[in-house]
Fold each of these.
Amino acid sequence: MSAPLLPGRVVSAHGRSFVVGTSHGPLRCAVRGRRADIVCGDRVEVRATGGGTGVIETLTPRENLLSRADAFHHKAIASNIDLLLVVTAAEPEFSLDLVQRCLLAAEVQDIAALILVNKADLPQHAAALARLAPLAAIGYEVLGVSAHGDLSALRQRLAGRTTLMVGQSGMGKSSLLNTLVPDAAARVADISSALNSGRHTTTHTALHALDADSWLIDSPGLQEFALAQHSLPELEHAFPDFRPYLGQCRFRNCRHRSEPGCALVAAEAAGRLWPARRALLLRLQEEREFADRQR
């Protein structure tokens, strides 16, 4: 007689190898059949096969899925997320383009977002906040912290949520993780050993329990974040500052470049929109159209 199905959550995923947290402890799991699109954060049902191993039998429907894609590759990052924590720092200089792309990905999936500025103890902190001021004006919350200082304000925002932490390399995500989850390094070593995949920080995401109701998903450092998996209307609507003007252009198929009667161009000229935003939309249009030509 086969073992009963156990509900669990994917703690880490690498290729076709997974660690699933269950009420019976973590299980090193394969996936039934050819399916390999399981990601960190997924809720699944597994069947234990003995010796701390199991098989993923069922994937529970996701609340959301954060991913990135260019013309040639699609990368699912994590699922069932309540908050996207976009980590920047006073130094090294971060990419505003990358920050905005992460925020757009969250908007498409209706995931709340928080921009974190790490290394707040450095003199460059004020300049980092100033670079993010246009995003704060749109309505995004920006919080300054030091990974080795008081993180109580951050912990309050993470409470009761599953949070995905993303950002460029060098922003101090590992230091933040180790402060928030003191045994994270040990857990990472265990996960990497179970998956036989080397260093966690360069290969795969991992989910950590902050408390009984709060989870933090750490992810490898990002250098780019393409959004070619989303349609042009989805991308337009992902800009909350554009929404009051969408549908107000003279032409229904307006591309918001130099068409007469474009509501976005007019709002930008009147100082109601940050010019960098429309410029980003035009880049995303070009990337999506290039991806379409490759298919």
Amino acid sequence: MTRTGPAPAAQGDKPRILIVDDEQSMREWMNLLFQRDGFDVLIAEDGVAARDLVTREYLDVVLTDIRMPRLDGVQLLKAVRSLSPDVVVLMMTAHWTQDSTEWAEARGLGADALFEKPFRDVNLVTMQVRQLLESRRLRHENAVLRQTTADQGFAGIIGRSPAMLDVFRLVETVCRTNSTVLITGESGTGKELVARAIHTLSLRRGQPFVAVNCGAMPEALLESELFGHVRGAFTGADKDKKGLFEAADGGTVFLDEIGEMAPTMQVKLLRVLQERTYRRVGGTSESPANIRLIAATNRELPKLVAEGKFREDLFYRLNVIPVALPPLRERGDDVLLIAQHVLAKYAREMGRAIEGFLPAAAAALRAYPWPGNVRELENVIERAVALETTSRVQLATLPENLRTGRPATPVGGNGGTSLHADAEAAGPGFNLERHLQDVERSHLERALERSGGVQTRAADVLGLSFRQFRYLAKKYGLK
């Protein structure tokens, strides 16, 4: 469980410090000391209370006594480093010295400094805290600069997990060739992003990139879209039409959901790959297919081949260079990296001053299994930016299924099936994003009906604030 997101307190902002001591007089004195020096001060009487605050609140500094009941300073230090690795942690004691083995252990766990009680020079204490904060700020700015360079340096794909680094290395190798690529992975993993990266890094980057969803249109329309048609080829064809293969001449054609392609279209695509030519619908002449083909699917093509639903020879023609994308749940801290990137994007678009995530929200994002992958994550962050009223996303702002960590949220009453079960029952063509939107819209419409169209009452029915309801109603065009 790792805290992420918000930058350290900028120069001119009030840094937040948590004072932890079981002696009331010491807490009150340090509260006055740091408030006088321009800090926003939080107080905890022991390690357990402090740990709860670290989970809920954004902090810059934790200053803790070592010997305390219930949870001592060293145990608190471990918890802070697990929840908030970039927080400055200072230890204070009347028993240790800078040369003690106990202090060596605390340093090994990530403590930044040790103060002996009683403080000999209070100004020296506050000055050292300021210096440590400044060092942290500079480290953060350097890290952000490196992250920005890395994140934007690979054709817009965000990720640093070992699984994604393997994908990046493969893409860098593939882009130098003209070989056909087959990208596989669950829905929402970013297959089109990878296809665009291959095109952007290839020698064809100055030419068109054309994408088409093979599962979104009937067979006859797909053939006309890809190959074009001549006048009179079918009813309504009153003039010649250029196809996407011709429009993408010299560039890249991306065929998404290739597993949904009808058998007769599979034969025609196979011929294009074998002969590197195509023929317009209703035409007689051949045209050269000067394109690079990249296909993608969320289905298991070898299984479809075994079932006789996908041509084996076409599969081998497509699977020249396979690129398998890992699901988001297997990408570790990429979840938080992507979440921060998306949050910054939507904060700019909506004009919101939201900088990051509180520890509990970040932990929930990290722990959730993300059945809808990156697409679902982006939708969640967009919603959070729209609804958040503070400078950092709180756990309460996230959807209930993220707060509970259970993606199988009931859809309706009377023992309705779960979203996860519905996804399995709906088959390979199931679109989780569209399904979630349909469910959300349906609940909004029913609430409006029950409330006679009064939005404030509809918001109460759903347990939402009026502002939250108004945002969602506007999103779905509800009156």
Amino acid sequence: MAVKNSFLYNEDFASVSYGEAHPMRPLRLRLCRELIFALNLDKIPSGEIVPASAASAEELLLIHDPEYIAILKEADSGCVPTGSAPYGLGAGDNPVFKGVYRWSSLSAGASLQAAKMVLGGEAKRAFNIAGGLHHAHRARASGFCYINDAALAIEYLLRAGKRVAYVDIDAHHGDGVQEFFYNTDKVLTISLHETGASLFPGTGFVEERGHGAGEGYSVNVPLPPGTGDELYLRTFKAIVPRLISAFNPHVLVTQLGADSLYSDPLTHLNLTIKGFIELVRLFAALNLPWVALGGGGYDIGATAAAWALGWAVMNDLDVPEEIPLDFIARYPGVFAEGLLRGGLKADVVSESASVDKTVDFILDKILPSIKNR
């Protein structure tokens, strides 16, 4: 019997709220799952929906400090714990809300579960849309992220003796994941993102290349605001396949943040859903065991659509040209009619020469160091 691809889901993914005015809306996860059903992508020969499970406190300690996990547990009541400020909890990007620990453990557990399924041969490709919370640090919440599920999945694979390539296409730099693995040559991290000169977290410049044994294994591709499909895809194709080939990983982990889409209210890149889907196709073409994670995405309709169609691509299926109108009608103002139609979007950027310079630097200075180790 052929190994199936797995889409991990739990009804509790959409059970919490960061707050009425907060841009992070877990509702997008339920919308994605419902769109998968509406597009008949839930019962396909190559894929299956798998119930997601939470990570235990012991599993979270693989990457997070005990003091941080203890105070995050305390915050699960919805009350801000005394002394939580140094841990990034309770204000701004990372509010304390009822269920914050339980929900974060579930998101992280699903990514760990995906890694276990891929490593154990139960799935060739496993997708956790609730994952990709790449800003969390060892002892601090940051950028809407409390538990770094991507780092947890990678650490599990590392301890199993695997080399891991992590590629992040979120509009925001994957700073937390980079930080966890900055000193090792067993993980190759590649982040394509809007430049830190114009977007949180203000990091991810090409000079950030790793340290010690990890020098050359952190790769950053900062993109100027306005970067659209043409420049993004050209840059991706020039760098990612070559680096992956040189590194020769056992497992691919991707963060598929959909806040690089042109409609996202928090960012300034210019990808269309068709451009996003082409990136997913390029990942699939690498033909590696694959742990796929969600990430950012604050136009919740576009994000749900991007991930639902990404699931289709992971299963080598044709992507529908439009969302069913009866589905759009169920969510007034969330899904734009014709959202999936149209060609690739032109760049709205004048600094493409700087991106080409970055590509040349990576190919001339970083790629050879990966090949020669």
Amino acid sequence: MAELQEKVLKKLMEKGVEEAIVILRSDKKNCVRYANNEPTVAFSEAVDTLTIYSSIMGRSFLGSFENVSEDFIEKIVDEVVTMTKNSPPSPYYTQIPKGPFSYRSEKIVERRIGRLDEQLVSYVSEAVKASKEAGAERSAGIIYADYQEEKLVSSTGLSLREEASSIILNHRAFATPEATGQWVSCSTTLRDFDPYDAGRRAGEIAKMSLNPVPIDEGTYDVYMGPLIFANIMSEVASFSSGFLVQIEMSFLTGRLGEKVGSEELTIIDDPTMPQGLGEKVFDDEGIPTQRTVIIEKGFLKNYLHNSRTAKVAGVSSTGNAGIIYPHPWNIVVKPGNVKEEDMVQKLGKGLYLTNCWYTRYQNYRTGDFSTIVRDGAFYVEDGEVKRAVKGCRISDNLQRIISDVEALSNRLYPIKWWEVEVPTYAPAAIIRNVKITRAFG
């Protein structure tokens, strides 16, 4: 019996669509939210998303529809055909890839993660217990276990299927309302999932953060913990999208082959990483994914492309579609050789920052941005943490930040939460001459 995506494709072709890709993504998620050390809400959700790309005589349409039943297929197809015909011709139009392609087949998915329910509450208890033992009074956060299935069919004969699963805990500990710490545990296997460690780390940061004092504005050397550095690195990698580069909304536009960062910095998009949080076999065009070096020892080596942006650039797709907007799948920052416990000593004098949120841009083209420092922030002198501080905001430039990376720790942490949407494997970093302003509100 034909599945939903196959029926939609068939009807699109019957109604005159020349080319089409239809993707059905099924996402099943079990979640537990908690506050004041206790679970507050447990829920499950299942969302099916139907994504349709269609083209007729160089006119293209891309749209997504949630929880579509077979009763509405005819109506949706009619709307898609109408919108495709009424779309303006695109100068970036290119035919969808035909293949044949060779795909990796060794992907391992731990399906039992998607069936976890009551076990999530016990994981919460582990994290809360660890934070208390570390000195925090209370904890809050969310844990979710996710299972995804993706099916892609195209008018060129592609028929692909892929699974994925992950379990992610985002834990925040409070010693007082002002003294907070956050850590995460993110994994595609239960073997590597460690809620106790996440709770302990968050609790330790919260306890260290007691009695924070305001910090003066100025330029500081900064030791960034993995959470905040992952945020910065995910931003940098995302700016390598061929789409952003070509519309000149990236500070990396026109810099291919140039030195854009410190020689300590190598950033890779690696969806081929076994059991990586962003492991992916094929992209939204059905092209096999690949390992792509974005920045190598400070030099910009590659942009990330789909078929459209690759055509404009005169290169091949890197397997990073988004049909309109290519993007990274699984960001990996090559680690350094400094032990994490030696990073404060290596910093010498400056700020140790553990987390941030609300990263915003004043100018995408130049990379001018600001982000609010949250949770543990500390003043360091003579290689020792002297006191907790508060009210910090980084107000700087991505180009300058990555150029002043002096050292990286020797361990990578898998990071994914709402401020780091693309899975990022990041170390800690020491960055010189970072501009700090006051955060208000």
